[in-house]
């Protein structure tokens, strides 16, 4: 998942948006909290200012000429309270406090307010100010002026704002994530188009990638096109060498055909047949070089395997080997017939050396879109530990004493290379007949 560029962009956007909104929410929450707290403190200080202006000592008693005008001060437990406490004598309180006396505790408050128990025991937040009231000439009376309001009122105001802020931030996050997803989809569209262009080149419907995308991809497209041109030049050189080789084989093959006429009748037909196979391969390479590209064709396995058996039967006639062919007539692989013939021919050639009495060729569908061809014999087989070694070039299996050489050691390696060139593989195992089983898979032809 982490290899997905779309996922990385989405994850990066999500993290950036989350961090930005968290910081924004924290800053806005702090600013609003400070604003509300300052407003409440200003209101309480305004009440204290009114009390300070109206309080005086008359006939030795502390009196208030006029109470603050807010009607809530005259309603019990209304939410607005004031109290004036002299250093000596009885305190003055608003009617809203009823019989409650405020005893502020600064340690228990929040946001710089002192805390106290209000009417009905509900907590209130208190702003307190100390001053000295002049009494007569040279006299002074220390006072503590207090204004208070319910703590839950401040908590409710802040809580309502923070709930609205969270909803707003979540909505903003959803909008920003949608915008980021849309930006990613639009931004990655040129890469999707580039992938389709590369697929067209691979399919052979285009030779180069069109450079009409954003400037950020121009350098990449230029490098890919340079690589494609280099590959095309290399293929052209390889085709030229193949053409030269095919031309060079023409004359020796003609001489071999003439020499084959001097062989005994029994060997003449076989020699001419083998020379003709080589000639067909040379003609095929010449045609491919002229066309500039080898056409991928489908090859019917039953017909091809029948021809291979017919060619190899004379070789095994002296050993009395029985050929068993179990290949449905409708099976076809998406591969060139000459390549399939060379691949199977190498394996069958080995089977003719090692088989005692039987060689079996079978084929059928394997995994989706693949055809498995199985060539088995009743020879000595191989040890499982030798399977990987025998697929290497130059590795030769041993024949029983007196049965000649085991070959060049190239056949199985070449057959495996051909199978892998078509996206398949060649594997070795134990045959039902008791000897070696070679399984080769090719892509199935369209419609199989």
TrEMBL record:
<dbReference type="InterPro" id="IPR004358">
    <property type="entry name" value="Sig_transdc_His_kin-like_C"/>
</dbReference>
<dbReference type="InterPro" id="IPR050428">
    <property type="entry name" value="TCS_sensor_his_kinase"/>
</dbReference>
<dbReference type="Pfam" id="PF02518">
    <property type="entry name" value="HATPase_c"/>
</dbReference>
<keyword id="KW-1133">Transmembrane helix</keyword>
<protein>
    <recommendedName>
        <fullName>histidine kinase</fullName>
        <ecNumber>2.7.13.3</ecNumber>
    </recommendedName>
</protein>
<dbReference type="GO" id="GO:0000155">
    <property type="term" value="F:phosphorelay sensor kinase activity"/>
</dbReference>
<dbReference type="GO" id="GO:0005886">
    <property type="term" value="C:plasma membrane"/>
</dbReference>
<keyword id="KW-0472">Membrane</keyword>
<dbReference type="InterPro" id="IPR005467">
    <property type="entry name" value="His_kinase_dom"/>
</dbReference>
<dbReference type="InterPro" id="IPR003594">
    <property type="entry name" value="HATPase_dom"/>
</dbReference>
<keyword id="KW-0808">Transferase</keyword>
<keyword id="KW-0812">Transmembrane</keyword>
<keyword id="KW-0418">Kinase</keyword>
<dbReference type="InterPro" id="IPR036097">
    <property type="entry name" value="HisK_dim/P_sf"/>
</dbReference>
<feature type="domain" description="Histidine kinase">
    <location>
        <begin position="244"/>
        <end position="446"/>
    </location>
</feature>
<dbReference type="InterPro" id="IPR036890">
    <property type="entry name" value="HATPase_C_sf"/>
</dbReference>
<dbReference type="InterPro" id="IPR003661">
    <property type="entry name" value="HisK_dim/P_dom"/>
</dbReference>
<keyword id="KW-0597">Phosphoprotein</keyword>
């Amino acid at each position: 998942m982490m290899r997905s560029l779309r996922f990385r962009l989405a994850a990066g956007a999500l993290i950036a948006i989350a961090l930005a909104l968290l910081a924004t929410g924290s800053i806005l929450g702090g600013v609003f909290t400070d604003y509300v707290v300052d407003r409440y403190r200003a209101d309480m200080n305004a009440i204290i200012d009114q009390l300070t202006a109206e309080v005086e000592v008359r006939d030795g008693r502390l009196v208030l000429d006029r109470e603050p005008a807010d009607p809530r001060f005259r309603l019990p437990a209304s939410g607005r309270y004031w109290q004036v406490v002299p250093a000596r004598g009885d305190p003055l309180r608003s009617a809203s406090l009823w019989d409650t006396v405020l005893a502020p505790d600064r340690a228990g408050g929040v946001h710089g307010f002192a805390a106290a128990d209000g009417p009905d025991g509900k907590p209130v937040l208190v702003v307190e100010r100390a001053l000295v009231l002049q009494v007569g000439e040279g006299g002074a009376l220390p006072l503590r002026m207090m204004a208070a309001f319910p703590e839950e009122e401040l908590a409710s105001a802040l809580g309502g704002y923070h709930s609205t802020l969270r909803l707003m931030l979540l909505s903003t996050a959803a909008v920003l994530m949608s915008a980021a997803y849309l930006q990613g989809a639009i931004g990655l569209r040129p890469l999707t188009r580039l992938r389709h262009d590369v697929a067209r080149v691979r399919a052979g419907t285009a030779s180069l990638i069109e450079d009409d995308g954003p400037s950020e991809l121009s350098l990449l497209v230029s490098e890919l096109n340079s690589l494609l041109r280099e590959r095309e030049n290399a293929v052209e050189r390889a085709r030229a060498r193949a053409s030269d080789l095919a031309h060079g084989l023409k004359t020796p093959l003609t001489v071999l055909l003439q020499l084959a006429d001097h062989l005994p009748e029994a060997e003449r037909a076989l020699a001419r047949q083998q020379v003709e196979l080589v000639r067909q391969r040379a003609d095929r390479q010449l045609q491919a070089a002229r066309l500039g590209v080898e056409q991928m064709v489908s090859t019917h396995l039953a017909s091809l395997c029948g021809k291979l058996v017919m060619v190899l039967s004379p070789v095994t006639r002296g050993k009395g080997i029985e050929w068993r062919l179990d290949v449905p007539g409708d099976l076809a692989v998406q591969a060139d017939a000459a390549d399939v013939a060379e691949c199977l021919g190498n394996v069958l050639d080995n089977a003719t050396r090692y088989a005692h009495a039987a060689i079996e060729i079978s084929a059928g569908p394997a995994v989706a879109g693949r055809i498995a061809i199985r060539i088995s014999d009743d020879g000595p087989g191989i040890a499982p530990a030798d399977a990987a070694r025998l697929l290497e070039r130059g590795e030769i299996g041993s024949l029983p004493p007196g049965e000649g050489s085991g070959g060049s050691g190239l056949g199985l390696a070449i057959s495996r290379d051909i199978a892998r060139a078509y996206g398949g593989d060649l594997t070795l195992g134990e045959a039902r007949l008791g000897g070696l089983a070679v399984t080769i898979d090719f892509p199935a032809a369209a419609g199989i």
